[in-house]
Amino acid sequence: MENLLDLQFLIESIPYILARLPITLGIAVGSLILSLVIGLGTALIKIYKVPVLRVISSVYVSFVRGTPLLVQLYLVFYGIPKVIYFLQREQGWLLGLDVNLIAPEVYALLAFSFNLGAYLSETIRSAIESVDRGQFEAAKAIGMKPTQMMLKIIFPQALIVAIPNLGNMFITTIKDTSLVFIIGVIDIMGQAKILGSRGLAFFEVYIAVSIIYWIVCLIVERALVIIEKRARRYERGIAS
Questions:
Q1: How distant is the alpha carbon of residue 121 from its chain centre?
Q2: Would you call 52 helix, strand, or coil by DSSP?
Q3: Of 118, 160, 157, nearest in space to 135 by CA
Q4: Residue 203: what pLDDT?
């Protein structure tokens, strides 16, 4: 009678899966950094109601919210090469770029940045708008330029408000990276699929990969709690 669970295979597969953890974390962290730039830019466009760009940013956020991440991943993976080929053929641009040499990790990073940036834009916008309007008036009264006001007064306070949502979105992104194996990225999920195929033990490897995701997310959650506590102390220090 077959055993329900091949525990030895499960344990032996963990080091091989963990070897791909840097790929998973690299995509998650890289997309978070890029999406912060995208989200901040989109949020400021909406706050300052920049003509034309405001409409474009609204369509962008609506599109991301209204389509699955998997579809967005495919659009980036198949769409960017087509755009590059078109520019090379019709416009004579990017002639030195060979799309065949672009690693699938790059497409995954762009897709996740594109997706996360839309959600972060709303988080950042609401965080900035939550700052007391008196702070804006006080900054203007002492002669601060808009850039100085944002960097020294508004952004630090808005960041404290946004930290919980930023953390939750980062954790969600870590889990969502499990989709990238469908475009050829061998992350921890892709490695688990390969190991499961070799040993015909999919149940065991998916238990292993779920445990790894769980532990990583627990560590991130704990780190976010510490960061949030320190941010709150910093906020109280400013208030006093």
A1: 12
A2: coil
A3: 157
A4: 94
**Distance of alpha carbon 179 from alpha carbon 187, whole angstroms:** 9
- What is the SS3 assignment for 100? helix
Q: How many CB atoms within 10 Å of residue 138?
A: 13
How many other C-beta atoms lie within 10 A of the C-beta of residue 189?
25
Distance CA 145, CA 65 (A): 35
* Local structure of residue 5 (DSSP, 8 states): -
User: Helical H runs in the chain?
Assistant: 7-18, 21-47, 53-66, 69-86, 104-130, 133-141, 146-149, 155-176, 188-199, 202-239
Per-residue pLDDT of 172-198, as tens digits, reads 999 999 999 999 999 999 999 999 998
Q: What is the pLDDT of residue 1?
A: 38
* Alpha carbon separation from 109 to 78, 120, 161 (Å, rounded): 14, 16, 26
Contact 196, 204 (CB under 8 A): yes
Confidence (pTM): 0.90
Nearest by Cα to 165 from 228, 218, 209: 228
Amino acid making up residue 206: Y
Instruction: Determine phi and psi for 143, rounding to 5 degrees.
Output: 85, 20
- Measured CA to CA, the distance from residue 149 to residue 143 in angstroms comes to 9
**C-beta of residue 205 within 8 angstroms of C-beta of residue 189:** no
How far is 124 from 165, CA to CA, in rounded Å? Answer: 9
